[in-house]
Amino acid sequence: MQDGTRLAAVDLGSNSFRLEIGRLDHGLIHRTEYLKETVRQGGGLDAQGWLSPQAMQRGWDCLSRFGERLAGFKRHQVRAVATQTLREARNREEFLARGRDLLGFQIDIIPGREEARLIYQGVAHLLPQNEERRLVVDIGGRSTEMILGQGLHAREMDSWPVGSVTWSLAHFPDGLFTARAFKAAEVAAKAVLEEAWPAFGGEHWDQAYGSSGTANAVAEVLGSLGWPAGCITREGLDWLLERLLKSQSADRLKMDGLKDERRAVIGGGVSVLRAVFDLLDIQTMQVAQGALRHGALYDLLQREHSDTDLRGRTVERLRHRFGVDSAQADRVCRVARQLLGMAPPAVEDYPRLERKLGWAAQLHEIGSHIAHENHHKHGAYILDHVDAPGFALEELHRLSLLVLGHRGKLRKLEAELSDEVFARQLLALRLAVILAHAHRDPDMKGMKLASDSDGMSLNLRSGWADNYPQSMHLLREEVLAWQKTPYPLQLMGG
């Protein structure tokens, strides 16, 4: 990207939605605008995992306003990510379908570890570059992320379903502050977070940093009342707890530095933060300026080129981990991309689609690590459940569907085949697998894949069928497989 390019990140958090707009300047992104709205979506998620109509409407209203501000931005300039509330919501697709229309851009639901990775990227890019071993803790509305890293590189990361909104609702439901309630909240938080101690204990880091919501809110309160600015100490947390107990309720709480939007969730946030301090033996935590949205911005820069896109390195690691035949994977990848390029879909960002088809081709045999029989089903399961840094949940699922569909009947993907782009990607992958079935480079001289109003056609040069009878047999079966889809396939020549 050129210097001066505008970039934007949207963070759909459980408590607040945020929009960060910046301008690229020699590899750094300088803020030009920041918008934040408290939508409290996390508080609108019931015990069965349904997001209430009111919570969805608050989110839609906010995305509509953000969408107006983002008018004129291109797809590659914007990254929108959603976190724990939408990871949990059973009706998330209803929210996302309208939300994407209102925002005007794709919204990615990211896994917890991917959220942690992006948080670290955001924090690290706004800190001095040195060899300090860092612990980063982000207590959000419905989840807490912890990351260990040095410089720009995260080494260990994890996410737990503990947050300021959920803990406030569970332990301070009427906004009442009692010593007994705080004790119960801290014990409950430690019970969930205790597995973090071996990996994130004090011997693994030199300095602890707090990112975003709860850490910022606590530091602002302490700083406004005379404690050291920009940091949280154990003594400060003890003093803050006493103040909360004296106020007896969130409604009666009056403290300099505490914003009204934070009043309802301060009890849950403080109890989780105290649990983290105790578990990891933290004495002092510095408040970081970077956060998830900043990590999403820098991730946009990395995704621009295949050699810096983390997802490409993740695919390579998965190939190695599951013992994929690299030569065959590369062969199918080359052929699939060549076929897609013969009849490319009319989309704004074709290289992105081509890259994702290549990843599916490289992983199409990943399930053979479990068993050769039904390896397409095993592969799809792996991709739907594996930890894959850089990927959003929907991206991984799309790859899993391509892997699932690369062989066998198409009936299992009937709903997805209504999407022309997906159908084109799948056809290219299936044809590539057929043409490379003998584990050697196929003869594609004179071959052409074309599309018209009647569907797709694969044109073969004269005599090709006589030279490759087994491949021709498989192609004829493929024609039958596509007959009852919206994109019937024809063989021409041969």
Radius of gyration: 26 Å
Count of helical regions:
20
Q: CATH H level of the largest domain: which superfamily?
A: Exopolyphosphatase. Domain 2
Q: Stretches where pLDDT falls below 50 for ≥5 residues?
A: none
Query: Largest beta sheet: what is the strand line-up?
Result: 8-7-6-9-11-10
Helical percent range? 40-55%
Structure, explained:
There is one protein chain. The chain is an alpha/beta fold. It folds into three domains: 6-110, Nucleotidyltransferase, domain 5, CATH 3.30.420; 127-288, 2-Layer Sandwich (Nucleotidyltransferase, domain 5), CATH 3.30.420.150; 305-442, Orthogonal Bundle (Hypothetical protein af1432), CATH 1.10.3210. The chain is 47% helix and 17% strand. The chain is built from 20 helices and 14 strands. The chain has helices spanning 53-69, 84-88, 92-103, 112-125, 164-171, 179-193, 197-200, 213-224, 234-247, 260-263, 266-280, 292-303, 310-321, 326-342, 350-362, 375-385, 393-405, 420-435, 464-467, 469-482; strands at 6-12, 16-25, 28-38, 78-82, 107-109, 133-139, 144-150, 153-160, 207-211, 231-233, 284-287, 448-452, 455-460, 489-493. The strands form three sheets. The protein has a six-stranded mixed β-sheet, sandwiched between helices. Strands 3-2-1-4-5 form a five-stranded mixed β-sheet, sandwiched between helices. Strands 12-13-14 form a three-stranded mixed β-sheet. Helix 1 (53-69) packs parallel to helix 3, helix 4 crosses helix 12 (292-303) and helix 5 packs across helix 11 (266-280). The radius of gyration is 26 Å and the shape is elongated. The model has no long low-confidence stretch (mean pLDDT 94).
